[in-house]
Amino acid sequence: MSSFNSPSPYASHRLADTAAVYRGGRWWLDARSGAVPADAELTQALHRHAADLAAANRAVAVMEQA
């Protein structure tokens, strides 16, 4: 599993423009009708995706400083 430095377990962060929200130390799928916790397989995929987005953001920041 790629390293995913999650924020405080008390913070809530939406993953880009998706229904995935990291809240309470775990991933949730959030909709107007309610939220359900992500299963283990989806959690791994969300961790990888979040890590990839963070790496892309860091790369863009480096390019903007050049």
Structural overview:
The radius of gyration is 13 Å and the shape is elongated. The protein is α+β, with helices and mostly antiparallel strands and 66 residues long. The chain is built from 1 helix and 4 strands. The model has no long low-confidence stretch (mean pLDDT 87). Helices cover 39% and strands 26% of the residues.
Q: What's the gist of this structure?
A:
The chain is α+β, with helices and mostly antiparallel strands and 66 residues long. It has 1 helix and 4 strands. The model has no long low-confidence stretch (mean pLDDT 87).
Relative strand content: 25-35%
Shape: elongated
Strand/helix succession: EEEEH
Which segments are poorly predicted (pLDDT under 50) over 5 or more consecutive residues? none
The number of strands is: 4
Intertermini distance: 31 Å
State the major sheet.
Answer: 4 strands, antiparallel
Q: How many helices in DSSP terms?
A: 1
Secondary structure class reads alpha+beta
Helix percent reads 25-40%
Strand order of the largest sheet: 1-2-3-4
Which features would summarize this protein structure in a list?
1 helix, alpha+beta, 66 residues, four-stranded antiparallel β-sheet
Write the layout of secondary structure elements.
Blueprint (H helix, E strand, L loop, with lengths): L11 E3 L5 E4 L2 E6 L2 E4 L2 H26 L1
Antiparallel strand pairs: 1-2, 2-3, 3-4
